[in-house]
Every structure is written in structure tokens, then in C-alpha cells.
Amino acid sequence: MAVILGFPKGQPSGAALAVPGLHVRPARTTDLPFLRHLYRVGREKELDALNWPETVRRDFCRAQFEAQHLDYTSRYPGAWFLVLEQRREPAGRLYIDLTGPSLHLIDIALLPAFQGRGIGTGILRALQDRAQEEEKPLSLHVQRGNDGAAALYRRLGFILTGPGATHDHFIWTAGESQGQPAATSRE
């Protein structure tokens, strides 16, 4: 049985976030093939270690992408599901939820060709600016073992608030510097 995927209504109609050098736009159903590919690329190292035949890899990634997509869109119906483009070429995705007590970064992923060029840092700084404007903290989860991402978040002032079995929770609050809490109290 085929799964019909889509995106929640209420997506931003214009540029949802200003990131220098990037065009940020709402994801559309026509973006699903790119988003499936991006998901697959992000799992290549893991898949290489399993030595599965291509048909098994393809089916596994399709099923996992669909499960993740359905989970995100049902758990975060008010979230923004965004596609990142550089020179009109799809470069990645950014999923953010602005409806809760914190601005929550659900997921960020870039194709390998766009990694290591400061794009992720630019996106995170834009999110920090948005969180500061809205007077909310910025929260996210990072998969255990993703040391590169965790180091980037720490460098940008995120603080580890809760280690988990599979993911660690990080939070950034405006006014915090070098991992030291701001003078204001947190509720």
C-alpha cells in the first residue's frame, strides 16, 4: 500500500527565515524525491557497514523516510518544513517548530557538497536571532555519537541539558555566553 505524504497546512508563504547566501522556502509535495534522497545520503555510512544489496537499502530508506516524515508532520503540525537552496539548487532541509515555549529545531540536513562551508552555522545563527526576537530559547536534539554536530552546537553557545539513550537535548538562550547562564532566571 502506497503512503501518501504531504505537509501540514499553514506553511509560511514567503521566506520564513533569512539566511545569507541561501534561499529558504516552504517544502512542497514535489520536493519529496529530493527529501528522500537527502535522507538516504545521510544514512550512507550506516548502510555501508551493513553491506545490504541495493534493493534492500532502497526499500529500507524509503520506509524509514516515510515513517520519519509521518512522525514529524503529525507530532509537529504547526512546524515549518523548509527546503534550503543555494543558487536555486536544493542543498538541504530545515524543520522548525515555533509553536511551543521554545523555538525547536526538529531537523536540519545538508547534502555533503554543502557541508563544511558555514551554511549550518549561518542557519543556526539565523535561528538564534529569531529565538531572541521572540524571546524564546532555541532547543534541539542531537543523535548520540554525532560529535561534529554536538561540537558545533556547543561552539554556538548551546548547553547540554539532558543526555538521552539515543539523543542528547541542547538549549540556547539569548544572553548566555561561553556556556555560562544569563543573569535572568529560567522557568
Count of discrete structural domains: 2
Largest sheet: 7 strands, mixed
* CATH-defined architecture of the largest domain: 3-Layer(aba) Sandwich
Helical stretch tally: 5
Reading off the top of the CATH hierarchy, the class of the largest domain is best stated as Alpha Beta
| Beta content | 15-25%
Please summarize what this structure is.
With 187 residues, the protein is α+β, with helices and mostly antiparallel strands. Helices cover 34% and strands 24% of the residues.
Q: Could you explain how this protein is built, in words?
A:
- The chain has five helices and seven strands.
- It is an alpha+beta fold.
- It has two domains: 135 residues, 3-Layer(aba) Sandwich (Aminopeptidase), CATH 3.40.630; 44 residues, no CATH class.
- The chain has a seven-stranded mixed β-sheet with strand order 1-2-3-4-5-7-6, with helices on both faces.
- The C terminus is likely disordered.
Supply the key terms:
187 residues, Aminopeptidase, disordered C terminus, seven-stranded mixed β-sheet, 2 domains, 34% helix, 5 helices
Topology readout:
Layout: E1 23-26, H1 32-42, H2 44-50, H3 54-75, E2 80-86, E3 89-97, E4 103-110, H4 119-133, E5 138-143, H5 147-155, E6 159-162, E7 167-172
Parallel strand pairs: 4-5
Antiparallel strand pairs: 1-2, 2-3, 3-4, 5-7, 6-7
